[in-house]
Design a protein that fits this description.
alpha/beta; five-stranded parallel beta sheet; two-stranded antiparallel ribbon
Length: 222
């Protein structure tokens, strides 16, 4: 199948999506690496990648829904000036959320329920969703914390809906099990990544997105 002529992508989330590191004095969003990988793998495709990231934001009691809504469609003229048709502004929204909710003692089930509202809002507006698993933290050394994250990620990975896909980025950028020297190069403060880590995250996102795009699948679960 021929590659798409144009891919319009929004990376949407909180501090990980922003590429937050060095106490917020610098940012290195994974979208940079994602864009490079897509341009390299799909040279005939026009790639537009935008970022909307608000560090600290939460799905429950935060501004995720408020921030997401304006991104869902743009209005274009069709025929007479009075006739307007809403068309999707993006082909894909890459959405990561939930970690800040767990940190604020929301349950995995409540967080998953709130995430479904965001996903379905995108899908109902004709936008394909790539949901990212919630990245690990240094707190995964605590069995209770690790169990809560694993439960939420299990809900995310098991979710099936037309136009919905998942990238299990935790396997690409783990905290648990990473060799200590490599961890120091990849992780910044136990929650956020260094530029090397964000590039690894971008690689993982790109590989999953390319897997779907190259298979010609933008609906259904691959």
């Amino acid at each position: 199948m021929s590659p798409p002529s144009h891919l319009r992508i929004l990376c949407f989330g909180a501090s990980i999506t922003a590429g937050f590191h060095s106490f917020g004095l610098a940012h290195h969003p994974y979208a940079k690496r994602l864009t490079h990988r897509l341009q390299t793998s799909l040279p005939s495709t026009k790639i537009d990648v935008e970022i909307d990231a608000l560090p600290g934001d939460r799905v429950i009691g935060g501004r995720y829904l408020e921030r997401l809504t304006p991104h869902l469609h743009s209005t274009i003229s069709t025929g007479p000036a009075s006739a307007k048709a809403a068309t999707p502004r993006y082909d894909w929204i890459i959405l990561q959320a939930g970690g800040n909710d767990l940190s604020n003692e929301q349950t995995p089930q409540a967080t998953y329920t709130a995430l479904q509202t965001l996903w379905r809002l995108c899908l109902s507006n004709g936008i394909t969703v790539l949901a990212l698993a919630v990245t690990e933290t240094s707190h995964h050394q605590n069995p209770r914390t690790r169990a809560r994250y694993e439960e939420l990620n299990a809900w995310i990975k098991a979710h099936e809906e037309e136009g919905f896909f998942v990238a299990d980025v935790c396997t690409a950028v783990p905290w648990v099990g990473m060799e200590e020297g490599e961890r120091r190069r990849v992780w910044d403060d136990g929650l956020h990544l260094r530029p090397r880590g964000y590039d690894m995250l971008g690689d993982a996102v790109a590989e999953r997105l390319l897997e779907v795009v190259e298979a010609g699948r933008v609906r259904g679960k691959l």
